[in-house]
């Protein structure tokens, strides 16, 4: 997820450089292509995090909320395009500070408990479960259930 956020931020910087300083449409197209690639990677990583880190009773809700927020962000992008239609450099540079904040946040988010369990890091998986789901008394049971599902 961090790699995707870094890639999207770098792609935004490339687009801004292409439009604001170099006036190079080829770099703008390359930046758009990179942004498209890393955006898809980021979406896939987010869905994985939502599915693996959330409590079972919230997984469907969080997945549908992800779809809803994708639509809302599309609307925000359209509105910004309408407001900033005379300033393409400003428009393509908006994701840079957002990306920097995302990277700063994601550095502190642990790996998902299921991923850590596949790496035989039971203690890390327990810490991750506490991070994502809070202090519950059934974390050992959850990990045991996941391990049993993997073995089947």
Automatic annotation (TrEMBL):
Pfam families: Sugar_tr. The keyword Transmembrane helix applies. Residues 1-152 form the Major facilitator superfamily (MFS) profile domain. This is Major facilitator superfamily (MFS) profile domain-containing protein. InterPro entries: GLUT, MFS_dom, MFS_sugar_transport-like, MFS_trans_sf. It comes from Pristionchus mayeri. It comes from the Eukaryota. The chain crosses the membrane at residues 30-50, 62-84, 90-109. GO terms for molecular function: hexose transmembrane transporter activity. Keywords: Membrane, Transmembrane, Transmembrane helix. It is found in: Membrane. One of its GO terms (cellular component) is membrane.
């Amino acid at each position: 997820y961090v790699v995707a956020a870094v890639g999207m931020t770098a792609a935004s910087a490339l687009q801004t450089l292409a439009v604001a300083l170099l006036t190079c449409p080829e770099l703008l197209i390359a930046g758009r292509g990179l942004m498209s690639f890393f955006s898809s990677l980021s979406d896939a990583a987010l869905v994985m995090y939502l599915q693996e880190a959330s409590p079972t009773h919230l997984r469907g809700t969080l997945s549908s909320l992800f779809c809803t927020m994708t639509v809302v962000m599309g609307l925000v992008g359209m509105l910004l395009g309408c407001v900033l239609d005379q300033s393409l450099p400003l428009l393509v540079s908006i994701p840079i500070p957002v990306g920097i904040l995302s990277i700063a946040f994601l550095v502190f988010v642990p790996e998902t408990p299921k991923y850590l369990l596949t790496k035989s890091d039971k203690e890390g998986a327990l810490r991750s479960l506490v991070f994502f789901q809070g202090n519950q008394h059934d974390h050992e049971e959850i990990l045991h259930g996941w391990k049993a599902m993997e073995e089947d």
